[in-house]
Each structure stands twice: as structure tokens, then as C-alpha cells.
Amino acid sequence: AQTVTQSQPEMSVQEAETVTLSCTYDTSESDYYLFWYKQPPSRQMILVIRQEAYKQQNATENRFSVNFQKAAKSFSLKISDSQLGDAAMYFCALPHGGATNKLIFGTGTLLAVQP
Amino acid sequence: DARVTQTPRDKVTEMGQEVTMRCQPILGHNTVFWYRQTMMQGLELLAYFRNRAPLDDSGMPKDRFSAEMPDATLATLKIQPSEPRDSAVYFCASGFENTEAFFGQGTRLTVV
Questions:
Q1: B103, A45: Cβ pair inside 8 Å?
Q2: pLDDT interval class at B29 (50, 70, 90)
């Protein structure tokens, strides 16, 4: 069975600093995607970044980057130069059942950004 | 500005009443999902449609929940009769083939 684990229920970071959110997963698939979604207080689920498992290069989107370790089944999110608007719940997600956009989610990490 | 539209945004209803939540997927998307978010269970997949056909509704309580896509521009999730334990935020998401899913703003349902 596919699983996604986020072991940090809450994290805090100072504005302009860097923070890393952890995610581990388990899957029997050999080729798959991994996603990080952000949910601010408005409750909208926003896609932050995605990684294709067959690509060795870590994905980057502006201040957001991932550290993807396929053998260890680890997929962490690094936020650089943290901004107040980054405060949100962050979810790691893994597709399952053969459909890339049919997702199972981790339990989330609540990120607070201190001014 | 393409987006998934869900209505209503918030709904309060009495136990036993029927509740219908609606979703307009992004034009051109052929996959639609319904998720439920609660504090206890997190985000759970309830139903999955591809080209309007239901492919997976194993996460949905069959006795009271039903999901349909009357046409490509409308997906509905109905609860009849509603119960307090159904209180949650219900998200609709759409995508095209195997690309990433885009989420609506959700419907917060409160059953009293």
C-alpha cells in the first residue's frame, strides 16, 4: 500500500530564513510523481512544486526547492527567504492507482513565519 | 483565469437534510475528484471520475453519499440524509489526463 508520512506537525521560521519540511513515502511504483501542496487560511489547495521520480535533478520553483532521495523514499521541501505569505499548512502528496492526479496526502505540516 | 469553482462555499444544515455540493471543473479537464478534509482523517479521496465515468468511489460511504457528473461542466456530491459526522470541508479537483490536479476552494459543511 502507498503511504505518505509527514513527521513534523508544526514548524516555525523567521522571516527571510530557510526552512525544510520533511516527507517520506512508500510506493511500489517505479515511475511516479510527488507533489507539495500549500493550504493557507483561505483553505485553497495550491500546488507548490512537483517532482518526477525518474528525474535525478531536484525540482525548483523560485524560492521553493525539493531534496528528492529516491532510494530513501524521501521528498523534503525547502523554502528559502521565507515570507509572511508562506505561512500555511503544507501537504506532501503521492499519486496512487495509476493516475498521477489521484492523490494520497500526508497529514500536513503547519508552518508559522515569524516577523 | 481558469479555476475550479465550487458552490456553496459554506453550508450549515440540520441533521437528516439533503445536501448537494456542486463543482465546475476547469474547461478541458477530463478528470474530476472529490476529497474530504477533517481534522481527524486529513484529506481523503471520496470519488474519482475520468471522462465523466466514475472510476473509483471506494472512499465514499455508499449508503448516504452519491457523486455524479451530469455533463462535462458539472460534478455533484450529494449526502442524504446528512449526519453531524459528515461535517468537513469538501474539495473538488480537476486535471487533464495524468497532469497535476487543481483544487477548488472547497465547501465547508456543518451538520447540526
A1: yes
A2: very high
